[in-house]
Amino acid sequence: xxxxxxxxxxxxxxxxxxxxxxxxxxxxxxxxxxxxxxxxxxxxxxxxxxxxxxxxxxxxxxxxxxxxxxxxxxxxxxxxxxxxxxxxxxxxxxxxxxxxxxxxxxxxxxxxxxxxxxxxxxxxxxxxxxxxxxxxxxxxxxxxxxxxxxxxxxxxxxxxxxxxxxxxxxxxxxxxxxxxxxxxxxxxxxxxxxxxxxxxxxxxxxxxxxxxxxxxxxxxxxxxxxxxxxxxxxxxxxxxxxxxxxxxxxxxxxx
Length: 255
Prior knowledge:
Organism: Pseudonocardia cypriaca
Distance between the termini: 36 Å
Catalytic activity: trans-aconitate + S-adenosyl-L-methionine = (E)-3-(methoxycarbonyl)pent-2-enedioate + S-adenosyl-L-homocysteine
Radius of gyration: 19 Å
Family: Belongs to the methyltransferase superfamily. Tam family.
Oligomer: single chain
CATH superfamily: Vaccinia Virus protein VP39
Pfam families: Methyltransf_23
Helix content: 25-40%
GO molecular function, one term: trans-aconitate 2-methyltransferase activity
């Protein structure tokens, strides 16, 4: 599956909800005076400034594989660079690496983690967060619809084995780190407006579908998906919708 194109504005529609896991992840990083901090997969750069504010004396480097995201980050004043995480190698003075909601797009990331940690200096911190909800209705219903005759073979999306379970991440990181902290959290997001779950996944999970279909077919696909999502995530009497979202976190400090 090729990497999807990204719409920074659509991605930021749920900025408050998407930013909270980043801040929860960062709270577990104990670095005090890092020399270099890397935002690996910085997106539109809206959270890179959080890293700069926490470690004002560090050299903060922001990388992303999407030219649209890099352009959006630069518009915010972030000196972002276009780079693929698969090709990234830590510089010798890299003391903190943060990668937030990125590695689920990189099938080879379980092989990359030990390599990255081995290349980091002693005492460096590595922090990652990935969605762990690929078996949830928000994703399963997309796969079910793509399996129907009209859509079969026209687009490919990620399956429920996209990311390993927390224990697997713990084993991968423990092979190269002195201290490892792995946990999961299911956030219960309260969304508002019509078809909010459809809107949410339109900025993420549906990107490969949008890229594969022409605009008319993509809207037809969304139209067929909408009532299924409404049934799985019903609107409450006050007009809001509960959207459970599981995420997996890991923080490691190298030996």
